[in-house]
Amino acid sequence: MPVEVAVIGCGQWGANHVRVLSEIREARVALCVDADAKRLAAVTQRYPGVRTTAKVDDLCADKTVQAVVVATPSASHHAVVKACLEAGKDVLCEKPLTVTAAQSRELVDLAEKAGRILMVGHVFVFNQGIQKLRELISTGVLGEVYYLHAARTNLGPIRTDVNVAYDLATHDISIFNHLLGAGPSEVSARGQVYLSPAVEDVAFISLAYPGRALAHVHVSWLDPRKVREITVVGDRKMAVWNDMDAIEPIRIYDKGVVTKTYYETYGEFHYALRDGDIVIPKIALHEPLKAQDSHFVSCVAARSAPISSGRDGWRVVQALEAIQQSMRQGGAPIKLPSGQG
Ligand SMILES: NC(=O)c1ccc[n+]([C@@H]2O[C@H](COP(=O)([O-])OP(=O)(O)OC[C@H]3O[C@@H](n4cnc5c(N)ncnc54)[C@H](O)[C@@H]3O)[C@@H](O)[C@H]2O)c1
After folding, report:
1. Ligand 1 pocket, residues with Cβ under 6 angstroms
2. Which residue's alpha carbon is nearest to atom 21 within ligand 1?
3. Would you state the pLDDT for residue 340?
4. pLDDT tens digits, one per residue of 28-63
5. 288-302 vs 14-23: helix axis angle to the nearest 10?
6. Same domain, 165 and 304
7. Residue 30 shares a structural domain with residue 110
8. 72 and 140 part of one domain
9. Nearest to 187 by CA among 331, 288, 6, 287
10. Residues 6 or more apart from 105 whose CB is under 8 A from it?
């Protein structure tokens, strides 16, 4: 029997969930919820068999629905997810899990006590380029990770409900945490409000991870170029992921620096630069959102823990909250309670 799924919030992104879920054999989209009747009409026109309602309460009362995907605006995630968990549903919530870390913690506790699955839509964890980067790190190909640098820029789309860090840096921080197996221990960030009042459109974020790894993220809605790129610099090799390159998203650079000490010349240091081949591994790309939603459905069916759990969502929100605090304090460093994954 397929898992009966509902989607709450059928706007720009929620419509993609409805599409991919309806392509997954192990799932059936039973119900769509949206406060906007026009969004529901668009769902009914495309998927005539799907029931619709404007009220989350109707979904909570519906015993046939086992699992819910929440794709409402970020500020509403806490209330909507809480209602669904209290009604006994398993939940996949879009990123960011909530706006505050206290809200995320409450949802994680609630899900654990109720024995419900809480997953967060950190969709890049399901991106095959990112999975390749993780493999390159975990198998030691890149060596010790010195630093990561991410750029995620474009001209728009501009949000007014959350700042650019909550909207875009969520992706990069979830990727960094996934690659390094831990959350950041300290952040500092500069951001600026150029367009909407009180919402930063541009941010430059520094993160320190347990050990020596550093990370940096540049996110912007005010940039001439659409860039989705991460550089990983290791002590053995370096790699670049370019999500805009649909055919060859990963390049591995056999580049590095070897430090040699010459004792016969009073312990002088010499730096030998290694500048070798650039390898482009073959990567069979699939739609990350479909992989993410398939994973959620299989976790619901098997009662297994998801890869991007509520705790992972909470860890990212802790960093986002600290980034916001740092931006409002002119870039002050903010320590995070726990760096461990
Ligand atoms: N993973 C990604 O790459 C990605 C991309 C885009 C958006 N998102 C996330 O998806 C979420 C939605 O973003 P969007 O761009 O689709 O927004 P949107 O404004 O286009 O859609 C949100 C929809 O939710 C409905 N809604 C709002 N409150 C509701 C409520 N309480 N009950 C029922 N319906 C309600 C609105 O009517 C609207 O149709 C956000 O959290 C965003 O961060 C994720």
Report:
1. 8-14, 33-36, 39, 56, 71-74, 76, 80, 94-95, 121, 123
2. 11
3. 45
4. 999 999 999 999 999 999 999 999 999 999 999 999
5. 60
6. no
7. yes
8. no
9. 331
10. 314
pLDDT in tens, 240-256: 999 999 999 999 999 99
Q: What is the CATH number of the domain that holds 272?
A: 3.30.360.10
Ranges of beta strands (E only) in 161-294 are 186-192, 202-208, 214-220, 222-234, 238-242, 250-262, 268-279
State the alpha helices, DSSP H only, in the chain.
Answer: 14-23, 37-46, 56-61, 77-86, 101-114, 128-138, 164, 170-180, 288-302, 310-328
| 39 and 57 belong to one structural domain | yes
pTM above 0.90, yes or no: yes
Q: What is the 94 CA–ligand 1 centroid distance (Å)?
A: 8
Write down the pLDDT at residue 298: 98
Half-sphere exposure of 241 (CA within 13 A, CB side): 25
Q: How many CB atoms lie within 10 A of CB 191?
A: 24
- Residue 341 has a pLDDT of 43
263 CA to middle of ligand 1, Å? 63
